[in-house]
Design goal:
This protein is α/β, with parallel strands linked by helices. Helices cover 55% and strands 9% of the residues. The strands form 2 sheets. A 5-stranded mixed beta sheet has the order 1-3-2-4-5. Strands 7-6-8-9 form a 4-stranded parallel beta sheet. Helix 19 packs across helix 21. The chain starts with a helix and ends with a helix. Its EC number is 1.1.99.14.
């Protein structure tokens, strides 16, 4: 394997203490050592020593959600995030997957990292939802039996409304305090455009000129998290080029998975990406840094906040969104039990592994419903889709919103 000495040092950091075990979703589900972080690290060491990767090894590595809860829990500073990404890249280089697996992954990566293709897909999906054909198909159970992964995709799709594109530049309200670039994202842009619109309005209200380059594409997060490093590098370089002449102070991201990858561009691309990486912030970080100037109108609502894994574990951003929510008069914030456990979304995990994803989603839904909150708030499109589906199954429906949608409602004096 590449960088043998460096990789060996990273593997040797693990002392197999077991602090990661209760935070690992698959270990919590199955209790299998090889489906824990330290077990997967043992397999990585074995693959390195024997110079062989077996189907069984790949199965255990594939089962990892990449949620990084183990990184937060580890007292030894094991860089499991680097280890699992490097291992997956090696798997994609040397391992031959089954024809069905290759076909599914090929379909996913032919569509999901392409905003234009996703928008084309969204149009007929809106029509199917309006006619009720999606619910009728679901009731038959046919797709679930024939193609579980495709059934998972259909279930996860949010209710879509017609959207209007955002202009390339939006001026700050009042005194300009900062100029920011907004990443519109792939899934976020196609399936949750209202989140992008709310993000832009809140940034404007807080004194930001908002620049939205129309030619922006995928950030590469899905690719890098699934071992497609070269593909991710291509996406990352193109995105940097789109933003490099905008003159913005910060590049704002409202999707946790995208933000975590963009904050590691220098590791993906080298020093050439450092200046770009240094500008990347989650929207909650920027708003927390600026401090509020726009008036917050009361929202008499109880809110449960779910930490998206790639915001809480990967980026370490937990306090900022809570401070923003607590700054809204009348809003009561409630914490969710087992916050360290992933909801099962994990990028495309809930499509590749629908059964464990469903179990994790149902577990998360039970904990959310138990708070008695009226609204579930989180900061990632994948989490919104996964949790919405699980809460619907629970029979205890509740509203869901992105953090910026709650702030937008308060600033505009509208009901959530």
């Amino acid at each position: 394997m590449a960088d043998l000495e460096a990789r060996t040092e990273l593997l040797d950091d693990c002392v197999h203490c077991g602090f990661c075990l209760p935070t690992c979703p698959t270990y919590v589900l199955w209790g299998e050592e090889m489906d824990s972080p330290r077990g997967r690290i043992q397999l990585m060491q074995q693959a390195l020593e024997d110079d062989v990767i077996t189907d069984a090894m790949v199965g255990h590595w594939d089962a990892c959600l990449g949620c990084m809860a183990c990184v937060t829990a580890c007292p030894s500073g094991v860089q499991y995030d680097r280890l699992i990404e490097d291992t997956r890249a090696e798997v994609e280089r040397v391992h031959r997957r089954s024809p069905a697996d290759r076909a599914l992954r090929g379909l996913i990566f032919a569509v999901f990292p392409h905003p234009k293709r996703l928008r084309l897909l969204a149009a007929p999906l809106r029509g199917i939802q309006r006619t009720g054909l999606d619910r009728a198909l679901r009731r038959t159970g046919l797709l679930e039996r024939v193609a579980p992964s495709l059934a998972a995709m259909e279930r996860l799709a949010p209710r879509l409304a017609k959207t209007e594109p955002l202009p390339e530049r939006l001026p700050a309200t009042g005194t300009r305090r900062m100029t920011v670039g907004l990443l519109t994202g792939c899934v976020q842009g196609a399936f949750f455009p209202a989140v992008n619109a709310a993000t832009a309005r809140v940034l404007q209200a807080e004194g930001c000129d908002v620049v939205i380059p129309p030619a922006q594409g995928c950030c590469g997060a899905l690719s890098v998290h699934n071992g497609r490093a070269e593909e991710a590098q291509g996406y990352a370089r193109k995105l940097i080029q789109v933003f490099e002449d905008t003159g913005v102070d910060r590049i704002v991201v409202n999707a946790a998975g995208c933000g975590s990858s963009m904050k590691e561009y220098a590791e993906l691309l080298g020093p050439e990406a450092q200046a770009f990486q240094d500008k990347v912030r989650d929207v909650s970080e920027v708003l927390d840094e600026l401090g509020p100037v726009a008036e917050r109108h009361p929202l008499e609502v109880t809110v449960a906040y779910h930490d998206a894994c790639h915001l809480g574990h990967a980026q370490g951003v937990r306090a900022a969104p809570r401070r923003l929510l607590e700054g809204i008069p009348g809003l009561e914030l409630r914490e969710v039990a087992e916050p360290e456990l992933c909801c099962g979304s994990a990028g495309i995990y809930n499509i590749l592994h629908p059964e464990p994803a469903r179990e994790l989603g149902d577990r998360k839904a039970r904990n959310i419903v138990a708070t008695g909150a009226e609204v579930l708030v989180t900061a990632n499109p994948g989490c919104l889709m996964q949790v919405a589906t699980a809460i619907e199954r629970s029979g205890h429906p509740m509203r869901l919103a992105h953090t910026v949608e709650v702030l937008d409602a308060s600033i505009r004096g509208r009901a959530l």
